[in-house]
């Protein structure tokens, strides 16, 4: 194994999710994280996926990203949009979105670890709203 392979395996240990809805959420979060909350490609992706009802998931994803940025005590690592692997933070965030309704304690612990704080209820509420927006349109996030 070369040094480059070891580095990629260390930094991006998780494969992309098999769920197409999770991939849409991941792409939008990566774009907003790297290019700002008003990123046009993120908005276009959600418009393409949700059609006329794109505003709710778009606004809620923007809110979640702003809450994450404002609450985190450290950096949350995100990979480039074209990357075929995920960082541990991205995997944890998608797991939170998938589990926030069915396993709230697990989602709480993951979010707490991700942000480095104990009181994550406000950010968790934003994550639950994003998950509900996807699920209400028939696009539940599954991990």
Written overview of the protein:
With 143 residues, the chain is mainly alpha-helical. The chain has one domain (15-136). It has helices at residues 3-11, 20-35, 40-50, 55-71, 88-99, 104-115, 121-136; strands at residues 14-15, 85-86. The model has no long low-confidence stretch (mean pLDDT 94).
Key phrases:
143 residues, two-stranded antiparallel sheet, mainly alpha
Describe the global form.
globular
Indicate the proportion of strand residues: under 5%
**CA(first)-CA(last) distance:** 29 Å
Number of strands: 2
Q: Mean pLDDT, nearest integer?
A: 94
Quickly count the domains: 1
Short description:
The chain is mainly alpha-helical and 143 residues long. 65% of the residues lie in helices and 3% in strands. The longest helix has 17 residues, at 55-71.
